[in-house]
Task: inverse folding
């Protein structure tokens, strides 16, 4: 399965000389986690979020015409949107956020509760979830704005920068030495700035970069302990929280996976 946002990449992968994917996840930029960047030069709004346009909307008719099964992601977490996806020729949908807040979710209960409390207080979707440039990959990344997590600039600035899991590291080649040999290195823009720059990185690419590896492990209660303190979490959700609001009765009650499934199927 390949994740893509627009028909151009789908077409290229479908025509690959190697074996094409068995299917595609067509992920809209409102989906949680990493998002494809907007088409054209990066422009930011007053909150520092990437600005998307009609150029970033997938041509589902063109994707359907390619003839490989596809699933739609990002805002399809209710029964009506599933029916809409099927009408566009999708095989189904990918649903994340509404399951992430269910009681059986692997998310640490404290963070589920914090999100539901924000919903209960009336915090709107745009204030609760923002699209950031925190990721070391350079791709936009959705972050729930929760106190005590890496969404908080104070928490981010207090944390000692390091890269000790390394799942998002980039590979590169050093400059030739006196014998003309070059060495393979790994670097991460969320690591110490000096280390990143020494490995041919640009200083401005380290600004605001958070360690997603450690942060996401802490979100599911598996955070590493450093100097007797657990690594701060970073919590991701999609922009569409309508199903969470409905199933939780505006943040007032917990709900379960069975409730989500029944809601999705329209039972």
Result:
């Amino acid at each position: 399965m390949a994740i893509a946002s627009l028909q151009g990449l789908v077409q290229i992968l479908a025509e690959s000389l190697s074996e094409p994917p068995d299917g595609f996840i067509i992920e809209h930029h409102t989906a949680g986690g990493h998002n494809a960047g907007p088409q054209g030069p990066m422009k930011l709004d007053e909150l520092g979020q990437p600005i998307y346009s009609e150029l970033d909307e997938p041509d589902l008719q063109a994707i359907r015409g390619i003839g490989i099964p596809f699933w739609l992601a990002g805002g399809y977490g209710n029964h009506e949107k599933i029916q809409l996806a099927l009408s566009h020729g999708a095989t189904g949908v990918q649903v994340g956020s509404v399951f992430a807040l269910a009681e059986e979710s692997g998310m640490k209960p404290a963070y589920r509760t914090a999100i539901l409390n924000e919903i209960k207080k009336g915090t709107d979707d745009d204030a609760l979830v923002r699209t950031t440039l925190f990721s070391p990959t350079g791709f936009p990344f959705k972050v729930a704005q929760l106190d005590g997590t890496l969404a908080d600039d104070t928490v981010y600035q207090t944390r000692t920068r390091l890269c000790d899991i390394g799942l998002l590291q980039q590979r590169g080649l050093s400059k030739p030495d006196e014998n003309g040999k070059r060495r393979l290195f790994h670097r991460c823009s969320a690591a110490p700035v000096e280390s990143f720059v020494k490995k041919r990185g640009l200083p401005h690419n380290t600004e605001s970069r958070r360690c997603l590896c450690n942060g996401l492990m802490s979100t599911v209660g598996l955070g590493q302990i450093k100097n007797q303190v657990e690594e701060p979490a970073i919590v991701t959700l999609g922009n569409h929280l309508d199903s969470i609001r409905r199933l939780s009765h505006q943040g007032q009650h917990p709900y379960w996976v069975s409730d989500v499934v029944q809601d999705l199927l329209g039972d």
